[in-house]
Amino acid sequence: MQENYQPLTIEQDAQNAWETSGVFNVSESSTQEKYYCLAMFPYPSGKLHMGHVRNYTIGDVISRYQRMLGKNVLQPMGWDAFGLPAENAAMKHGVHPADWTYENIDYMRNQLKQLGFAYDWDRELATCDPSYYKWEQWFFLKLLEKGLVYKKTAPVNWCPNDMTVLANEQVIDGCCWRCDTQVERKEIAQWFLKITEYADELLTSLETLDGWPEQVKTMQANWIGRSEGVELDFAVSDSDKPVRVYTTCPDTLMGVTYVAVAAEHPLALKAAETNPEIAAFIAECKLMETSEAAMETMEKRGVDSGIKAIHPLTGEEVPVWIANFVLMSYGTGAVMSVPAHDQRDYEFAQKYGIAIKQVIFSKNGEEDDCSTQAYTAKGVLKNSAAFDGLSSEQAFIKIAETLEQQGKGQRKTNFRLRDWGVSRQRYWGAPIPVIYCDDCGTVPVPEADLPVELPRDVVLDGSQSPLVAHPTFSHVDCPKCGKAARRETDTFDTFMESSWYFARFTSSKADSMLDASANYWLPVDQYIGGIEHAILHLLYARFYTKLLRDEGLIVCDEPFKKLLTQGMVLKDGSKMSKSKGNTVDPQALIDQYGADTVRLFIMFAAPPEQSLEWSDSGVEGGFRFLKRLWKLVYQHVEAGKTQLLDKQALTEEQQAVRRQVHLTIQKVTDDFGRRLTFNTAIAANMELVNTLSRFVDESDNGRAVRQEALESIVLLLSPIVPHVTHQLWLDLGHQQAVVSEQWPKVDESALTQNILELVIQVNGKLRSKLSVSVSAGKDEIEKLALSDEQTIRFMEGKPVKKVIVVPGKLVNIVV
Ligand code: ANZ
Ligand code: ZN
């Protein structure tokens, strides 16, 4: 055995051994239980960062552990390869996005290999490969057939100077990132996936996800945003068309003092026809970003439309305001405003001098004052005519019923979730497979013509997508009538690719979207990734799973059984990021210490869900530990072969060491399998190493105990530091590689304490100690105590009057 720990050669050897034996390439024919472990695939940005290393190390440790439990473990890797950074790089450095992307992939693949991750590389995929996006296009057309895809106009960010659409990240403080011109909103026709059809199921099936963090499920539920309310009509004076509003608080109906409509609402547009001031306000609203997030912080503004609405129950007239906080895309684009009980309505009413009428009061008359802010809690109704005295809950039902009876409204469930806009006016993405013909309209690309390949011969200059003017790409013949037609030049949102890659890994070579293997492997048993994907990516992947199921391609309802969201990697208390300039390059550490030290430190510094504070001395400490372990094995191995352990003839100390070994196995098994706390698992092994350093016993049984202990440590740490343990296992005398070994089992008999320590008193004074077997009876203990040398000395030759034995505690000899 090599005397010194030399990580770089050991790691190369171990990796070569894995590659030639193909141990991590799995098939569906196995009779073992399957286990699918997946960490979110990376965007090939150039090189791995510490967040990647953490993510993939966690996944690898879990995979290797599950393998040792005897499962058929799939752990694949691929590349989320489309996206804007490739276009930016192309413009900055004049390289083609494809070349840039594939070069990055090659570099990062090599880094992942250096880290020793147990991937089935045969299943590698890159989403920019036509053989991947072909099936995405195929599936989109299936959805189009089913009516789950449609086209409508939607706003985009538009730079009037560059005459181009901008992605959200290209808008900086409302201006174009390139020319600083103020960005406008422009309505253009775009493709949508009807995720709202699945809103109910996406919400209710969250309940089946026992293995997901509560926080993520809550975020998803809030995003879907189911609310129960009432849709009701206010008649409009001088018009036969009422204005319909949506409210979640019909109990406050008698407190309505105005109606507010969105700037794009028909009533607003009508008022603008005759009033230039209103027209100007609407134009201004149009320029502004009206996302719901922006809405929260934006200054609330409005204009009185001059139009009057009639309260459906009292018949009173209330003014109709046009307000920038009402979204056209939610509910009906109009709200009944109750300033006394809604803070936003309250601020608006205060600002514009609109009446505030309180109708809800707290049950005990406390803290329901509306003079400085809205009272938004539930309570009891007053000033509400026939509804006075009802609780908010009772009034909700009663008022809804009254409106329903009078034909003025009905109960309605609404979702905050919007359909998913998948069109992007960008080059580096998967082409949307449709053709527009003047005669035939929108024509799907025939299946035989798929994939619609992205042309390579383009120049990116930052203006419109080069696909738009591409001579052969954009000008095609209509598949139906053969006349000259135009191809769709938008590409898919890159979330489309990441919504089903986990399924494609199961059937990566199939000449169909998925094959039967999908049902063998899915759902993913353990998914690992960043909390930043808690909403969109996970929601889209769940949605896609239901789409694939309903298309008959898979049978599961949910893609990810268990989800682990790993914490951030921090340096000096703040997130490691390029912009902060506080990154640590994993490559430099791999070069200096080897992959095992990096993996060990990452897993030791914090449990996976918590943030991890970077520490150079921690890395150094990890390296020292591996050197100590190496030395311990070296000294043991060099002293020659070990005999078999004789369990019947163990000394007290040997028993104690064995007991710690098996307690460690027990604890580490629980840490790996149930708690996912690898840091405490490592700590327990470190303690065992400390014990072994102090355990100097070169007897046959002593060496056998040490052999058992070292083997356990090597097995228990092998998922975390697979290279060094690969070598140590061979050095400890095994033929089979440690990756193919079973996870160690607890020897229950080693756990029970066999030897007890009793104190010996002479005339009530502590005089000596005695070690006895737990099975020893009173007589035997008495005999042993009376023959103890030190005790005999304190008895001073006097005759024994009485011996008292308290089992497990003491022996008192009265003389
Ligand atoms: C009257 C009222 C009184 C309301 C009150 C709230 C509190 P969620 O839970 O998100 O569904 N609303 C309805 N449509 C809107 C739109 N297009 N833009 C902006 N706001 C809109 O919330 C529904 C509530 O948000 C509705 O209930 C409505 O205000 C407002 F004490 O109606 B409420
Ligand atoms: Zn045609």
Written account of the structure:
The structure is a single chain. With 815 residues, the chain is α+β, with helices and mostly antiparallel strands. It has 27 helices and 34 strands. Strands 10, 11, 12, 13, 14, 15 and 18 form a seven-stranded mixed sheet that branches. A hairpin with a 3-residue loop joins β33 (802-806) and β34 (810-814). α8 crosses α9 (276-287) and α18 (586-593) packs across α19 (595-605). The chain is globular. The site of ligand ANZ has 19 residues, from β11 and β15.
Question: How would you sum up this structure in a few lines?
Answer:
The protein is an alpha+beta fold.
SSE layout:
Blueprint: H1 7-21, E1 34-39, H2 50-68, E2 72-74, E3 78-79, H3 84-93, H4 97-114, E4 125-126, H5 130-146, E5 149-159, E6 164-166, E7 171-172, E8 175-176, E9 184-193, H6 199-204, H7 214-224, E10 226-236, E11 243-247, E12 258-261, H8 266-274, H9 276-287, H10 292-297, E13 302-310, E14 317-323, E15 334-337, H11 343-352, E16 360-361, E17 380-381, H12 392-405, E18 409-415, E19 420-421, E20 423-424, E21 434-437, E22 441-444, H13 471-474, E23 475-477, E24 484-487, E25 491-492, H14 495-498, H15 501-504, H16 517-521, E26 524-530, H17 536-550, E27 560-566, E28 569-571, E29 574-575, H18 586-593, H19 595-605, E30 612-613, H20 616-638, H21 652-675, H22 678-694, H23 700-717, H24 722-731, H25 748-751, E31 755-762, E32 765-773, H26 778-786, H27 789-795, E33 802-806, E34 810-814
Helix pairs in contact: 1-24, 3-4, 8-9, 18-19, 19-20, 19-22, 20-22, 21-22, 21-23, 22-23, 23-24
This protein binds ligand ANZ and zinc ion.
